[in-house]
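hiii so my PI (J.) wants the whole complex modelled not just the main chain, which honestly fair. so below is everything: two entries, each one labled with what it is. i double checked the lines twice but i was tired so who knows lol
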Amino acid sequence: MASSRDTILSKIRSALPQSSPLPDLAAVTSWQTFAEPIEQFTAILKLVGGLAMHVGNLAEADAHLRTQTHWSGGKNRCSIVAGVGDSTVNLDGIDDPHELENLDFAVLKGHFAVAENAAVWVTDDTVPHRVLYFIPQHLAIVVPASRVLNNLHEAYSQMTVGQHAFAGFISGPSKTGDIEQSLVIGAHGARSLIVYLVDDMR
Amino acid sequence: MPHPALAQQFTANRERAQWHDKALWFVREKRDRMAAAVPEWELLRETASAIKSHTQSRLAEYLEQFEANAKKLGVIVHWATDAGEHNRIVLNILQKHNVQRLVKSKSMLTEECHLNPFLEKHGIEVVDTDLGERIVQFRQERPSHIVLPAIHLRKEEVGECFHEHLGSEKGASDPAYLTEVARQHLRERFCHADAGLTGVNFAIAETGGIVICTNEGNADLGVSLPKLHIACMGIEKLIPRAVDLGVFLRLLARSATGQPITTYSSHFHGPRPGCEMHIVLVDNGRTEILQMPEFRRSLDCIRCGACMNTCPVYRRSGGHSYEATVPGPIGSILTPLQTPEKHSSLPFACTLCGSCTDVCPVKIDLHHQLFAMRGFLDRKRLIGGSKKLSMQIVSGVLSRTWLFNLLGKCARTSLRILPRFMIYNPFNAWGKQRDLPTAPKQSFRQQFAARSKRNP
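here's the output for the full assembly
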């Protein structure tokens, strides 16, 4: 008996539609760009419930973070960005991601940000457990201000997808509108998100 | 039950039907604002449509490429010809890992395959973790919308449901409070799950990875804690390249809920260290649809739900009136293709207004397909006698000018002189909820001729 794989593939091949070309996306020159990408990013992040802070250096990000009650009030905190916040939880000592269940705040790294939709690109190689992006009650992500791109096409043309078991875009805190279409921030993931766009990352 | 009968039940509660209509129109308007803010919106739609057409024309190759690349990443790939095989594959994986508790994120495919009842029958606890899906799971209903599963419910009903199942305060109906109750309840389930199961929004042939989009973060939590991740997808979810995501992710959330992008757009390429990741590729009738030139483009659907939000029939009749996994315009094509006998009334739940086609992010010719579907069902002899007879009469009248003119004259006269009870009676379906317009003395042709004479 033929395997299900072969059955499916041969059924597909038995009546393929006429071939049509795959669009060349790199040739398109009319994708949306912004005169002030950082301002656009900030406005859109606000729209989706997050806060963008454009700061000069890591010390300014740190100073702002320490004014946040979610940060100061959080018992279990961790930061993987040296100079921004500090850690009360030692991530090195954690083998099982379940131990992060009670994490209140995490400060993590983003590689770049996208102005059109306030998305930040994160990857699993910067964190010991990918659940760090989803399980903390509150989240801050630090991104170089020089890396705010216009749109998703720019983003995909500049990265190699597939080199990380997990990578993704995060745009704002987690949310739901499943009860009568009323927007509630804080569904299963972070209840708040701050993105620090930092000019000088040294 | 046919769609008109179920729709009648829904519209019996007039206040609720009007609220439902407005709630979905609100989403449609958000979508419009988002689409208008992207100057190259139409170019995006055309590009998405072209990528999908191309993918279909090479689907077998892309599936092979996807499988090979996924295997290189350490993913275990399965193939299922139908729902039954899909369910058995999932059960096997779960049993091999002694899974008792499974957390699931939204997957229309597993709805289509009726995976939940199958797994529950085999003693596995299945928890749907999308808030809307959890609500309908508690209520033992099917989702009434593919993006907003509980859009048919009022917050008071959700409050009652949570009071019964989660012990929330009696009478509480504040969405923020209810969401918090669900968050606490589902956190506990996430942390104690043995495995996570997800759907797939896009599968990338050139990388072997999958992309899952959510706002709540439930898919991500569900697969980042337990050691086993199973992703189930229809074979039509494939796209050739990672750069194609730039097109589809720009369209998906804007079309679905009027957001610039979903909160989480997660790209999974292989298991976490020491963990396992499985992908189940499912046919379940898709290869048959691929062989039908007039309907194959329905497989391009990216499940955004925009066609439902804009459909004047869906908004007023509710998702449950379709009795289908996927309701609304796209569901009225996909569902009768799979079960024509049971769902022959669906393509008639449509005024052919074409609004669905206008909003579809991948430019599926929805209203043309809905029209073609009527012919498809007629060829299968599934169109009811009264519908057929009335169509034959109309066709007979419209093809004879003299008869059309004569009947027009009779109608104009009789509408004017007949008493009300003779016009508004059970035989006149068009007069049920509305008055017919006042009949003019002259036909259009007569008025036009007179006008031409006056102003030559």
